[in-house]
Amino acid sequence: MPKLIANALLFQLGWLACILAGDGPGLLVVAAVLAVHLLWTSSWAAEGKLLLSVFLLGSALDSFLLNLGLFDFGEPRTLIPLWLTMLWLLLATTLNHCLAWTAQPWWRGSLLGAIGGPLSYYAGASLAGVGLPYGTLPTLAVLALIWALVIPLLHGFARLYRSQYEQTLRSRRSA
């Protein structure tokens, strides 16, 4: 239980660092959070695959939403800023840990995604000065639908990499 609480607190610390520091030196806090997380994990390979998958999927998704005009960072861009990509890495650190309870049944993840996803974007946009050109409520509604699908999908990645890791362990023991 203490590790789950630490995982949640480290996620929140990293989230605040990303939102408040932008692409500045505050991102070193994220590097520290990731280092602590990887030191605590039993499988760097499985957790690394999860972090990379979530990072790539999330960055692509948010960049797609940016190009649809859902976000305005105050300058023309086609890719999301570094600090927003780091939030995806931080989210990945929670899937097998403090958010593991949302994996089963699937609707827990959908419910958390539909509520927590848009609230996180709203808070982050407010603090970081990110515009929501379509308006707050329409943007949050779109994000709620997307995040109701995203969290169960991310848990699917976590389950896949965890089972691959466990299968590798079983193979090594039987060899």
TrEMBL record:
PROSITE patterns: PROKAR_LIPOPROTEIN (PS51257). InterPro entries: DUF2878. The keyword Magnesium does not apply. The chain crosses the membrane at residues 12-38, 50-68, 80-99, 111-134, 140-161. Keywords: Membrane, Transmembrane, Transmembrane helix. This is DUF2878 domain-containing protein. It comes from Pseudomonas zhanjiangensis. The lineage of its organism: Bacteria, Pseudomonadati, Pseudomonadota, Gammaproteobacteria, Pseudomonadales.
